Structures are given as C-alpha cells and as structure tokens.
Amino acid sequence: MADVDTDFNLKVVLVNFKQCLSEKEEVLMDPYLTGWKGLIKFLNNLGAVFAFISKDVLTKVQIMEKFRNSEQKENYFSLQSMVKYEISNNLVDFQKRADHPDSGCRTILRLHRALHWLQLFLDGLRTSQEDSKTSSLCTDSYNIALATYHPWLIRKAVTVAFCTLPSRNAFLETMNVGTPEEAVEMLSDAMPFIGQGHPARKCLKPDLNLGPPVSRPGSQSTENIRIYLNYVNSSKTNL
Ligand SMILES: CCCCCCCC/C=C\CCCCCCCC(=O)N[C@@H](COP(=O)(O)O)[C@H](O)/C=C/CCCCCCCCCCCCC
After folding, report:
1. How far apart (Å, rounded) are the C-alpha atoms in residues 201 and 193?
2. Which end of the chain is least crowded, N or C, by CB within 10 Å?
3. Residue 73 Cα to ligand 1 middle (Å)
4. What is the Rg, in whole angstroms, of the alpha carbon atoms belonging to the chain?
5. Average pLDDT, the chain
6. Distance between CA 91 and CA 94 in Å, rounded?
7. Letter string b/e over residues 63-72, b meaning 16 or more CB atoms within 10 A of that residue's CB
C-alpha cells in the first residue's frame, strides 16, 4: 500500500513519470503510481491546509494499488490494459455513479486532470518573474485544468489554500534540486518532455491520449479505447 514518507525531489518524481512509458508505448501503472506518491510527499510538506488535497490523491492512488494487488493485477498492468479490461467487462459507470463508483478509468481520469494542472503550474513557475505570486500561478492553472470539474465548495477551499503558498523562490527551493535558478533550469529541461515527450503525450495530456491502439483498427481494443476517449471527453465525466 502507499508508503508516503517525507522527502521530496521533483527530479525523482519526473523520472518516475518518464519511466511510465513502455517500449510498446503503454503507460505502465506502477511507475505512474510511484510518481504520484512522490507528489503526495510534496503535498504533505505544504501543511494542514493542503491535507484535504493530499488525502484525495492518496485515496485515488490506493484505489489503483488495490487493483494492482488483486487477482486482476495483470489487467491493471498498464492504462491500456485497464481500459480494455474494464470496458469489455462493463466495469465503468458511464451515466451516473452506480455499480462501479471507483473504477480504474474514473480514478485515472481524475489523476490525469491533476497532472495537467501540474504541467501548467510548473511551466508558469518556470517562465514567471521572480516576484510573481505562486497563488496566482496556481489559480490560473487550476482554472484551466481542474476548476470546471469541481463543485463550488471545493473551488473555494482550493482558492483559500493557494493563498497560503510560499513565494516563488521558496517554492523552487522545495523542489530540492538546488538554487531557484538551478530549479528553473531543471524545469526548462523537463518541460519539453512533460509537454510533448514520453509521459506527457500519454500521462499528462488533458484529453488522456492513450496513444496508438494496442491492436488493429476496427478491433475490440480499438473500440474500447474509442469508448474511453468518448467517456473522457464527455460532459458527464464528473459523475
Ligand atoms: C516544487 C513544485 C512541485 C509542485 C508539486 C505539486 C504537487 C502536487 C501535485 C498535484 C496536486 C494536485 C492534486 C489534485 C487532485 C485532484 C483530484 C480531483 O479532482 N479530485 C476531486 C474529484 O474526485 P472525486 O470526488 O470525483 O472522486 C475531488 O473532489 C477534489 C478534492 C480536493 C481538491 C483538489 C484540488 C486540486 C487543486 C490542485 C492544486 C494542488 C496544490 C498544490 C500546491 C502547489
């Protein structure tokens, strides 16, 4: 189960996400979840105001770890195998949260949206002026990537939490990759890869691009992925 200790190093987290992509262009679940556990460490260091966010992420990581420790673990080896398995076996609620309230498809979709927030936020941090407010950077990224999926109460709570964030430079230091300047340099190296490269194309894009279908056009796998992409892009995905 999720073992989330206290040290955080953004470089290590990014390496975990980079390792998500297999040679066959599958997104591998275990390094993906390890990457998330690294991010939880960071959230835990931000103090009590952020506890509700880190608890939500931890719950979602634990849902996925439970699948990976179950008899069906092979079906949850990658995001592609998960989509294939859950959709073929009617394990995803499409209309309302009902028989499968915590499906892997639903849970991963929420984690992916949050990674999109992270991508925007890190890019904002990297390209902003030294005196920029982290709360504004956070809010702007949140409004683009996540706010539409959250109810009013969560949006308000998040906005309040953002106001407690440290300054931009203090923030860059918490990455544990050296001085703020070195952190910016590291982010500059990492952003192309986050934006278009390995994990990005598969893990960080808001539309959850699952990459090339694992089998031929017209096959059942392709159809499953098409169904999942419709689910991701549908207006009802907040169920
Ligand atoms: C040194 C820079 C490194 C930055 C590292 C940042 C680390 C944090 C990374 C990501 C955090 C985002 C986590 C957000 C998860 C949101 C998942 C979600 O949408 N959950 C909602 C829906 O779930 P269900 O109820 O449908 O199961 C849930 O309702 C919301 C719960 C809590 C609110 C989440 C708000 C997220 C705001 C993102 C900001 C994170 C703050 C990070 C501060 C830098």
Report:
1. 9
2. N
3. 26
4. 18
5. 80
6. 9
7. bbbebbeeeb
pLDDT at res. 193? 62
Would you say residue 199 has pLDDT above 90?
A: no
- The domains located in the chain, with CATH, are 10-83+102-233 (1.10.3520.10)
Kindly list the protein residues whose Cβ atom lies closer than 6 A to any atom of ligand 1.
Answer: 10, 39, 42-43, 46, 52-53, 56-57, 110, 113-114, 117-118, 138, 142, 146, 149-150, 154, 158, 171, 174-175
Closest CA to ligand 1's atom 23: 110
CB 123, CB 191: distance < 8 Å: yes
Interface ipTM: 0.96
How many A from CA of 142 to the centre of ligand 1?
9
Q: How far apart are CA 64 and CA 100, in angstroms?
A: 13
Ligand 1: which residue has its CA nearest to atom 33?
53
Pocket test for ligand 1, best of 12, 42, 50, 56 (most atoms within 8 A of CB): 56
Considering Cα of 170, then 176, then 180, then 185, what sign does the dihedral take? negative
Q: Which atom of ligand 1 is nearest to the CA of 60?
A: 27
Among 12, 16, 9, residue whose Cα is nearest residue 30: 16
